[in-house]
Backbone:
């Protein structure tokens, strides 16, 4: 019983540690994607960023979730999904 509890605790700790270590990499990937979108279509990017701002997205936010939401919105806007 004690060994099973120890094993479950170890698995939970490994799961949390993996997600914490992986988070900065995903933020770096999102920043790289944002920079690539800005370089590839500067006018469209500025228009989509203004649209995102008008819809309530916080553009200068460095929070993982909000930054990913902004990048996803701008990516969709550049593809023509948001109007």
Residues:
């Amino acid at each position: 019983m004690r060994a099973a509890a120890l094993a479950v605790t170890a698995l939970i700790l490994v799961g949390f540690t993996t997600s914490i270590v992986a988070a900065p990499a995903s933020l770096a990937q999102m920043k790289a994607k944002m920079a690539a979108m800005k370089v590839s279509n500067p006018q469209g990017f500025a228009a989509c960023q203004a649209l995102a701002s008008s819809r309530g997205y916080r553009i200068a936010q460095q929070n993982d979730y909000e930054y990913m939401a902004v990048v996803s919105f701008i990516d969709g806007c550049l593809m023509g999904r948001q109007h």
Remarks:
- The first helix runs from residue 2 to 40.
